[in-house]
Amino acid sequence: DFGRSSELAFVVEPSDDIAVQEQPLILYCQVEGIQPITITWRKNGVMIVDSENAFMLANGSLYVSRFQRVRGDGSSDEGEYDCMAQNHYGLLVSRKAKIQAATMSDFHIHPQNAVVEEGGVARFQCQIHGLPEPVILWHKNSMPVNTDNERYTLLPKGVLQITGLRAEDSGIFHCVATNIANVKFSREARLTVSGSHSTVYKDPMILVGPENLTLTVHQTAVLECIATGNPRPIVSWSRLDGRPIGVEGIQVLGTGNLMISDLTVQHSGIYVCAANKPGTRVRRTAQGSLVVQAPAEFVQHPQSISRPVGTTAIFTCVAQGEPPPQITWLRNGQILETSDHIKLKNNNSTLSIYGINQADEAIYQCLAENSAGSTQASARLTVLWADGLPSPPQSVRAETVSATTIQVSWEKPLQNTKEIIGYVLHIRKAADPVEMEYQEAVSKSTFQQLVTDLEPSTSYSFYIKAYTSRGASKASEVTVVSTLGEVPAMPSLFIKVINSTTVQATWEPSIKLGQHEGFKLYYRKVHLSQYTGPVLLASNITAYNITHLDASVVYEVKLLAYNQHGDGNSTVRFVSLRETVERTVLNPPCDCMKDEQNNKTSTTGIIIGIHIGITCIIFCILFLMFGYRGRLLMCKNVQEQLSTPQIPRSQRSATGLVLNGATRRDRDDRDLNGKQLDMNELERLFPAPPSQEQQEKGITSAHSLSAPHDETQISTLPLDEFSIIEEQPDPLPKNPHASSPAAPAPNHSSANEG
């Protein structure tokens, strides 16, 4: 039963047709599948009953003996026909066939008389409507126009073009329209060719440009473009979007008409006709749009499937066409109505049937239709049902435990429980579609399940199925229960000090808060027990400024979210404004004008200080240089003094001591007067050696040290104790070794310190 032969399907479906008045019409319908198969016909959705005028043939086709567009009772044989086939597995409906009567109207455009100079272009047009599209032929002087003449171009829409006119082209023209309904003749028009070919220059001009056309794939499009000018313009074609027109199926009729054969959707676009003056950039353009429609056709057909009871069946039907087709689903020939367990998605391309049962077993059809045509495809759903399956679980109950938990319990089925291998609990939010359902498996010995991670204050539906290795039982009764309400969670709170009397409380909205109606804000001084507040804030508010605060104390700020179930836990923060006040005192507000002036003054002082510092450095360097040079000179003089003849050892000690001790004491005085020392001062500075008598008494000079007579007392003379000494020659005593106390000491020279 599940093989190919069981599928009920159409081998031949009725097609669109144009019927001739008072002539017979046959609509074909052929079906295959498991017999017996019953075929019936409908017109415009109404069942056709066999009559003398219309009845069904043995092969299932419909025969209309005398087609009439309008009958005596006002009815018509025109309309949309479809055939229905039905067998044990379901019912199938064919595509709709549109039947129209062949007609032909009168000409609404007739050819007009024309006078054209020799070498010019003549154009005649006649237009008429009919079904099917009339074929239009042209006659000249009551004879068919010679189409072998390349100067004569006949276009399908009833246009005759004659280029390069000559005198022999003059005559009387008319057109003849023919279809299966009738033959009609237009009025006559005279063509007069005047004068000789003109050599006067004329700008290119497009007499007639392309029309906007809407055609179907595989038809032929003719885009007209006729241009005049002297010299004769060159006609070219292009697409406005820049895409190439191509060469396959493209042909130029006459001097510039574009014909596209075997149209495809890709040929749709705006076409531009350009008339160019030869050898120049002078041109004229005209444009027209071409719309190519494609009837609906299937890219993916729905496939017949077999599914156990309680499972999900999915059919997919993908169609394409231009314009995009609309998809409609039928169930056994009737429009499919969606419900909680029947859903259409993806622009009706996907049909999903949840929790199928035997009532869902049927033939499902996908109808794709657009303005260019329609098509259909079908598939059968077989619901598998095994004998001996358990009956539905009994006494399903659901009890609310908390805001996020519900406990579901049930009792085992009444029948066929031995083969049960487990239960499946089906869970869904009551407001969600069936496809949002999820399941939890339960062992066969368990008759309750704690369902967690639910949302507060939300209704849920539950039902149970018992499973065996051969299939599932039918679903139990559905029970619906709601979770408890829950107060909101703690919000995140942040405090920012704005100034010495204001702080800003901010918090973040979060789904973790749950359902909440708003926020309550409290604040107080920490040493007080009474809060200021609550300040009620809407749920969309996320910040609040607390003003007129005392900067000398610490404040406590508290925020909580609330809903209809009560207040949530609060978040507490402490804040002090004292640091802000201290920073304000330590860092007073900036006086920008004063600071700017101070900056200018400071800059000037820095520059002056740099100059003074550089000057001081230069003077120090010079001072050091000259001072070092002077020391060198002094050392040289001392060396010269030390190199003079030796005085007696007894005098050398005293002299050395005097130089070491007294020279520095008298240096300033000598610097001031700058005069040469007199003899008395020399005697004071350089006394004569003591007498023998004084030596015996053990008396020495005040500046000498006690020592044995045979030892010489040497005084160290450091270089830095010397000054620059300028030598000046003085007359010395003739007897340098005289011992008179009044005589000057037998020194090598007398010195003036300069």
From TrEMBL:
Biased composition (Basic and acidic residues): 663-673
Chain residue ranges for the region called Disordered: 643-674, 686-754
Key words, A-Z: Disulfide bond, Glycoprotein, Immunoglobulin domain, Membrane, Repeat, Signal, Transmembrane, Transmembrane helix
Membrane topology: Single-pass membrane protein
GO cellular component term of the entry, any: membrane
Subcellular location: Membrane
Pfam family, one: I-set
InterPro entries given in the database record: FN3_dom (IPR003961), FN3_sf (IPR036116), Ig-like_dom (IPR007110), Ig-like_dom_sf (IPR036179), Ig-like_fold (IPR013783), Ig_I-set (IPR013098), Ig_sub (IPR003599), Ig_sub2 (IPR003598)
Domain Fibronectin type-III residues, every copy: 392-486, 487-583
Biased composition, class Polar residues, residue ranges: 643-654, 691-704
Compositionally skewed regions (Low complexity) per UniProt: 735-754
Residue ranges of every copy of the Ig-like domain listed in the record: 8-100, 105-192, 204-287, 295-382
Domain of life: Eukaryota
One of the GO BP terms on file: cell-cell adhesion
Keyword Signal: yes
Spans traversing the lipid bilayer: 606-626
Family designation: Belongs to the immunoglobulin superfamily. DCC family.
Protein name, UniProt field: Immunoglobulin superfamily DCC subclass member 3
Phylogenetic lineage: Eukaryota, Metazoa, Chordata, Craniata, Vertebrata
